[in-house]
Specification:
2 domains, five-stranded antiparallel sheet, 5 strands, 48% helix, elongated, binds zinc ion
Length: 150
């Protein structure tokens, strides 16, 4: 983690972010995934420490406390969310997705009380897989910033 303050020069990281224009996915306010140079994504979390922001990036440089361009890109999005007042960018969730998720959880609970362990196990596996697919589908619905911001 590194702290955003006067001691940490972020000019290089910012210049690199401007040049690379990585895609930034917003999971929630303070929680982002930023596209890396290989097309992979790094998780970036931003936390408030008193009057400073602490930034964590899962990339190698970030793990060593360096201000990487993923962090710079996430900070830009973080700042945009604060300035535009969209600090909690929870996109209105499709009501049907909520129903599907709640039904899947009900199926899982019903399977837990089954005495037929083999069938219960199969149901658990199917529900897990469906919930994961649902999560991935929703991740694809998130607004994709970074590339769209001019
Ligand atoms: Zn990084």
């Amino acid at each position: 983690m590194f702290v955003v303050n006067a001691k940490n020069d972020m000019r290089r990281a910012i210049a690199r972010a401007v040049e690379a224009r990585p895609e930034v996915l917003t999971h929630s306010f303070s929680d982002y995934s930023v596209e890396g140079s290989e097309g992979n994504y790094y998780r970036v979390t931003i936390r408030q420490f008193g009057h400073c922001l602490g930034v964590d990036c899962a990339c190698t440089g970030g793990q060593f406390g360096n201000a990487c361009y993923h962090a710079a890109a996430a900070l830009a999005e973080h700042t945009r969310l604060v300035i535009t007042g969209a600090a909690a960018p929870a996109p209105a969730r499709d009501r049907n997705l909520t129903y599907v998720e709640s039904d899947l959880r009900a199926i899982r609970r019903a399977a837990e009380s089954s005495r037929d362990f083999e069938t219960a196990d199969e149901i658990q596996r199917a529900v897990r897989s469906a919930l994961q697919a649902l999560g991935e589908y929703e991740l694809g619905l998130l607004p994709k910033v970074g590339s769209a911001a001019a």
